[in-house]
Amino acid sequence: MSELAVTILPETPRDAQAIERLLERTFGPGRFVLSAYRLREHVDHLLDLSFTARIGTLMVGSVRQLPVCIGDTPALMLGPLTVEPPFRSRGVGRMLLDRALKDAKDKGHRLVILVGDEPYYSRVGFKAIPKGRATMPGPVDYNRLLVRELVDGAFDGVSGPIGPDWSKAR
After folding, report:
1. For 121, which of 16, 61, 76, 126 could close a Cys bridge (C-beta 3.0–4.6 Å)?
2. What is residue 16's three-state secondary structure?
3. Mind listing the domains of the chain with CATH numbers?
4. Among candidate residues 105, 83, 86, 109, the one with its CA nearest the CA of residue 27
């Protein structure tokens, strides 16, 4: 197949409904019981660090990041990352990840965490968080709790519960 002409743009408030419909199609209603969604109940994602992927005017993907803390250490939580099924395995998710991580680093953020598949996310530098070093509210598969340092050594000595960054809570 030919190359896709994908445009990655910062999310705007006008994108909210389209993103919600995309998340409904790709994750379904069961997404609301996941631990990451419990964190999202208390703090909004950051529009300047959340992005959409479009082909022409068609939204084909989205990634969001929200402010959290691991213990007392500020971090970002990446997710959800989603791509419309017909456009998967064509680099759209990678383009969204690359932009989200680059802009987070450029804006001075040091750590990004997520709950996801290590084989997929390790391609952009995520690693499993050692068991017991961080906890999340509700059920979580700790084998899927991953971290990416945006600054070398940023995760050294960091531990504790993962929760909303209350300084940025609604």
Report:
1. 126
2. helix
3. 6-168 (3.40.630.30)
4. 83
Report DSSP state, residue 146: E
Q: CA 37, CA 166: separation in Å to the nearest integer? A: 16
Burial call 86-120: b when 16+ CB within 10 Å, e when fewer: ebeeeebbebbbebbbebbeeeebbbbbbbbeeee
Rounded CA separation 16/18 (Å): 6
- Residue pair 82/62 in contact by the 8 Å Cβ criterion: yes
Helix (H) or strand (E) holding 28: none
- Cis preceding-peptide flag for 164 (omega within 30 of 0): no
Give the span between the Cα atoms of 81 and 90, in whole angstroms: 15
Cα–Cα dist 126/140, whole Å: 17
Q: What is the pTM of this model?
A: 0.89
Burial class (CB in 10 A: 0-12, 13-18, 19+), 76: buried
CA atoms within 13 A on the CB side of 1: 9
